[in-house]
Amino acid sequence: MNAELVLRAQRAGKRALLLSGPIGSGKTSAVLSLSAELLGMGVALDGVASPRILKNGKTLGYWVRRLPSGEERLLCALEPPGLPLGRFFFRPEALEFANTVLVRAAKEAEVVAIDEVGPLELAGGGFLPGLQACLSSKAFLILTVRPHLVPSVQGWFGAKALEIRLPAR
Fold it and tell me: Domains in the chain, please, with CATH?
């Protein structure tokens, strides 16, 4: 996958690129790679990626990292404090950081990446305030989504979203 795909989708009138795939399929790696390539081409890109924290092959949590600065916060971990969702506890200060980045990106960036739109956002929390600002903006969006959530997310865009499904590794 390369940045030209994003630019072609944008020129074709698409509003978003949805990168879907199961956990470990490379969604975050794809966002990081696409973002670096677009930034290298001079595209005004901002947003957040959520790389996993791994130890001995086990996921201990996730960071939230601002693109392109690399500034990051601990998004969630297996242990409190934080808001429980599934097996993780989400840190309110990290969600606030991400939403601040996304609201600013909605105003200033031509492309915004959000890794990942998941159950927390669809339930009205997480990155939703920043995501809503981006949905109201003119920015092209790159979103990562798990396959079972794609229909809900695609509903925001209708035919104006291009889904790329990444295979399980």
Answer: 3-165 (3.40.50.300)
